[in-house]
Design goal:
- This protein has 798 residues and is α/β, with parallel strands linked by helices.
- It is built from 26 helices and 30 strands.
- It folds into four domains: 187 residues, Isoleucyl-tRNA Synthetase, Domain 1 (Orthogonal Bundle); 235 residues, HUPs (Rossmann fold), CATH 3.40.50.620; 231 residues, Isoleucyl-tRNA Synthetase, domain 2 (Alpha-Beta Complex); 60 residues.
- Helix content is 39%, strand content 19%.
- This is isoleucine--tRNA ligase.
- Keywords: Aminoacyl-tRNA synthetase, ATP-binding, Ligase, Nucleotide-binding, Protein biosynthesis.
- GO terms for molecular function: aminoacyl-tRNA deacylase activity; ATP binding; isoleucine-tRNA ligase activity.
């Protein structure tokens, strides 16, 4: 085996040869007749450059699949792709605008065609990157959400959920994006630091306070709230207090303010500094300037958070009352201990005003001064309204940095909006069966988790999962096959209609839903159950792209009718929504677990400006990336940096060097010849071959790929190092049985090691395998995984 002057070219050539010779398919043929091993992973987005998270998941799946195939069980991996979503829509819209075309001027069919063309180009590039990494999969049989068969499967999953009573429609608060003109799914929102006005706002307390606290009768009393989100004040209806906090009523000029006692000094320093006396405390570590009250007699009353509960107040400028509620989330780290609360994404929106539409503008319910204003351009007017009514107690120029929501696609700020939505409820169970959350949590304990921490992460995710909004205002994706009565607006969500539409979509594509009269799907003579009407309109919303992706697991497993998968590879960190949602869909439709075992990994955390995956392949090659996936995936957060990749490149080179050193001593050796002399080292080597192979097989089976590398590396250091070869120098320099015996040991060691390493260091293993002397399998992947061997005793004459 000679070192290539350019290992990257060797890798690329080898990847082409594997594809050209169909090594992956022949590996499955070799194992035909054995019990299949069903392996699935999460779908790749298939939009834009390949992400490191997607690359990590697919590499881990490839390692697990190659081990099973080498061990004799046919394991054909069907790649899943979910190119639907706002990211691709945004990219297509930007490309159209660059061409001078208004995206909104295109028909739905034309826009979908442009999206499909761009998605296919993305899938082609990502597939090429995976193949360049040495990933074996049935690329021709890929399951893609944009294909008619997969879209039909998505609709059938929805039909099953509907049949089980798990689809409802209700008004609900959610984040919206004015730029994208749609409600955002949970995984389409991210929090980023934002500099916003810091507002101390006075809310006039209702008259019932005097009944509870007679000493405050006749005084102007105000709850003092603090917020960094002025745009939420127009929808404010509650102030949150903590039940266990102590609150004080403090005389501030002509008014009395209520705030949490631990925060009062800080509050007064920011709202009215001249009410304080500055003091210098002489401490051992140095002098510290502090503030104190002028007069503790200004504290007129004390109350607990529970005492404040249900007290009312008046909105600063609207004729709208509010009330105090209790919340454990209120802290004494900042603010006043009284938080002007806005609706929370996921809350029920029935009976609550939503003064903002998807276009991001206020309506008339918040007053004429704000009507028509964009939400995030209205801060100045809100400050004017507060100042005009004496409700702003600090300087309007005060600001603070805080985490704020934004749309992941267009990076514009997100706001809250309440709209009727199609929802998959987590806790609203139909008559009889348990709620979906309960079913999903119970199923978690019926799966083997590798590592065990994956169980806890999924459990926490399911416990915190809000009701799932399934509809979105998009133009690229799978239709939501429901209808509405034109007369009364009654919704018709029928499993039978959904399955009828699914069959049509499977034959003609998703556009059939929009070009066919909806009555053709509803059936002849159908009448509205609410008003008896006979004219209907179709739902124009599309299904959440996350729901499409979640249905790829059932779509892939539909090709394996024998039951749940043997192993599912999935990300289980705080961003692992796709796996959690796949779990919910599978349990919600089938009432069982999707996989007998789950191998989970964390999310990639780059510590520097790491290269894109495709560029990293060009710079470092595939082996460092495969080594990175195998040795770092067990971390809750998978580290990644160019320094780390460079170190792994050097590690892979050391493995090649050690194997090269061994192969170079096999010149003239013919495997299967007359047995040679037994060497003193042979017993120790065979003992490792017996124990090490067993340990490595167990490590692969348990998903502990890092232990595979650690075990092989320790053996190479001990047996294949330059120092170790010194002990073999004399027998290898001799002729006859002694040299043949030494070469036989080396041959067995190398042929065993490359097969052990093949699932991880696929290119290195193949290159060494091809350099071994004598007859052998065409590829290391057709040679089978080594079995443990016995350890013969050393010959006295050796």
């Amino acid at each position: 085996m000679s070192d290539s002057p350019n290992p990257l070219e060797t890798e690329a050539r080898m990847a082409r040869e594997w594809a050209g010779r169909g090594i992956g398919a022949r590996l499955l043929e070799r194992n035909a007749g054995a019990e299949p091993f069903v392996l699935v992973d999460g779908p790749s987005e298939g939009t834009g450059p390949l992400s490191w998270d997607a690359a990590l998941g697919r590499l881990l799946t490839d390692i697990a699949g190659k081990f099973q195939n080498l061990s004799g069980r046919p394991c054909g991996v069907v790649p899943g792709w979910s190119p639907h979503g706002r990211a691709l829509e945004q990219a297509v819209a930007q490309r159209l605008q660059a061409e001078g075309v208004d995206p909104r001027a295109l028909s739905r069919e034309d826009f979908q065609a442009r999206c499909r063309a761009q998605a296919l180009e993305g899938l082609r590039l990502q597939t090429a990157a995976y193949q360049r990494m040495g990933v074996f999969a049935d690329w021709e049989a890929s399951c893609r959400t944009m294909d008619p068969a997969a879209a039909a499967q998505v609709m059938r999953e929805l039909a099953t959920l509907t049949r089980r009573g798990l689809l409802s429609r209700r008004r609900r608060w959610a984040y919206g994006c004015a730029h994208c003109q749609t409600v955002l799914a949970e995984d389409e929102v991210e929090e980023v630091p934002r500099q916003s006005p810091s507002l101390y706002v006075a809310f006039r307390v209702g008259p019932e306070l005097a009944t509870r606290m007679p000493m405050l009768e006749g005084r102007e009393v105000f709850f003092l709230g603090w917020t960094a989100a002025p745009w939420t004040l127009p929808v404010n209806e509650t102030l949150s207090a903590h039940a266990d906090f102590e609150y004080v009523f403090y005389q501030l000029g002509e008014r009395v303010i209520c705030a949490a006692r631990p925060l009062l000094a800080k509050v007064l320093a920011e709202v009215k500094g001249d009410e304080l006396v500055k003091k210098t405390a002489h401490l051992r570590g140095g002098d510290v300037e502090t503030v104190g009250f002028e007069d503790f007699r200004r504290i007129l009353a004390y109350a607990s958070g529970e005492d404040l509960q249900h007290l009312t107040y008046q909105h600063p400028w609207l004729e709208r009352p509010g009330r105090v509620v209790l919340s454990p989330h209120v802290t004494d780290a900042a603010g006043t201990g009284l938080v002007p609360t806005a609706p929370v994404a996921g809350e029920d929106g029935e009976g609550r005003p939503s003064p903002v539409g998807l276009e991001g503008r206020y309506d008339g319910s918040v007053g004429a001064a704000l009507q028509g204003q964009r939400v995030f351009e209205a801060d100045a007017r809100i400050l004017d309204l507060l100042e005009a009514r004496g409700a702003l107690l600090n300087a309007r120029t005060d600001t603070v940095e805080h985490p704020a929501p934004r749309c992941r696609s267009c990076l514009q700020p997100a706001f809250l909006v309440a709209l009727p939505q199609w929802v998959l409820p987590m806790d609203r169970a139909p008559e009889g069966p348990p709620a979906l959350r309960e079913q999903a949590l119970e199923a978690v304990s019926r799966v083997q988790w590798m590592p065990e921490e994956g169980l806890g992460r999924l459990r926490r995710g399911l416990e915190g999962q809000t009701d799932w909004s399934l509809g979105q205002q998009r133009r690229w994706g799978v239709p939501l096959p429901v209808a509405f009565c034109e007369g009364c607006g009654e919704a018709i969500a029928s499993p039978e209609v959904m399955e009828r539409v699914a069959s049509a979509v499977e034959r003609e594509g998703v556009d059939v839903w929009f070009r066919t009269p909806v009555e053709a799907f509803l059936g002849a003579g159908v009448r509205c159950a609410g008003c008896g009407g006979s004219t209907f309109r179709r739902e124009t919303e599309l299904l959440d792209a996350g729901f499409d992706a979640a249905c790829m697991l059932p779509a892939v497993l539909a090709r394996h009718p024998r039951g749940p998968a043997d192993l599912c590879v999935a990300r289980s960190d705080s961003r692992g929504e796709p796996f959690r949602r796949s779990w919910l869909v599978w349990v919600g439709t089938r009432g069982e677990v999707p996989s007998r075992a789950c191998f989970t990994h964390g999310a990639v955390r780059a510590t520097d400006g790491t290269l894109p995956v495709e560029r990293a392949l060009e710079v470092y090659g595939a082996e460092p990336l495969r080594l990175w996936a195998a040795t770092h995936s067990y971390h809750p957060e998978v580290p990644l940096s160019e320094r780390l990749l460079e170190g792994l490149r050097q590690d892979a080179a050391k493995v090649r060097e050690a194997l090269h050193r061994a192969v170079s001593h096999l010149e003239g050796f013919e495997p299967g010849g007359a047995p040679g002399a037994v060497l003193p080292q042979e017993a120790r080597i065979r003992e490792w071959l017996a124990e090490g192979v067993t340990q490595i097989r167990q490590a692969y089976a348990q998903g502990a790929f890092h232990l595979v590398i650690e075990t092989v590396a320790a053996f190479c250091e001990d047996t294949l190092s330059a120092a170790s070869f010194e002990a073999l120098r004399e027998p290898l320099s001799q002729e006859g049985p002694v040299r043949h015996g030494a070469q036989a040991v080396l041959y067995e060691v190398v042929s065993t090691l490359v097969r052990l390493l093949a699932p991880v260091l696929s290119f290195t293993a193949e290159a060494v395998w091809q350099a071994l002397p004598g007859p052998r399998a065409e590829s290391v992947f057709l040679a089978g995984f080594p079995e443990p061997t016995g350890a013969p005793e050393s010959s006295p004459s050796a």
